[in-house]
Design a protein that fits this description.
This protein is α/β, with parallel strands linked by helices and 135 residues long. It has helices at residues 7-19, 30-38, 60-69, 88-95, 109-128; strands at residues 2-3, 26-27, 48-51, 76-80, 101-104. A 5-stranded parallel beta sheet has the order 2-1-3-4-5, with helices on both faces. Helix 3 (60-69) links the parallel strand 3 (48-51) and strand 4 (76-80). Helix 1 (7-19) packs across helix 5. 25% of the residues are buried.
Length: 135
């Protein structure tokens, strides 16, 4: 699942993921993703990759908290263009909301591939070791 309000990044991510054989459900806003996740027939995604800032609705941190409150345990990656402005204490605070990895928003094919590799590693780690489940 990819949640991002910037169309160019949604398209780039979708295209890169599909080239690698992944199925991608993409949403412009977290509220739309929550609606989809509330449907009883919708299968929980293997991973969520979400932007931090998504006006005008709930932001990525609120989305992560809501997913954890609803009992979802899939890996959650937070992507932000302003990662250089964050201190390690900021990242720790974001991770305390149920985010497994905070990373800069990818701007190239290589960076998108790196993000997909990070997502794959998180998914495999959680499947192999249930202790790693998010709170």
């Amino acid at each position: 699942m990819f949640v991002e309000d910037e169309p160019v990044y949604r398209r780039l991510f979708r295209d890169q993921a599909r080239r690698r054989g992944y199925q991608v459900d993409e949403f412009t806003f977290a509220e739309l993703a929550l609606q989809k996740l509330s449907q009883p027939t919708y299968r929980e995604p293997d991973v969520v990759i979400c932007g931090l800032y998504m006006p005008p609705g709930i932001d990525g941190r609120d989305f992560a908290r809501e997913l954890r409150l609803r009992g979802f345990t899939m890996p959650f990656i937070m992507s932000t263009p302003k990662i250089v402005d964050f201190f390690s204490s900021d990242i720790a605070e974001i991770e305390s909301d149920g985010v497994d990895l905070v990373t800069g928003r990818p701007d190239s094919e290589a960076e998108f591939n790196g993000l997909l590799e990070d997502a794959t590693r998180l998914v495999l780690a959680k499947r192999e070791n249930p202790i790693l489940q998010s709170p």
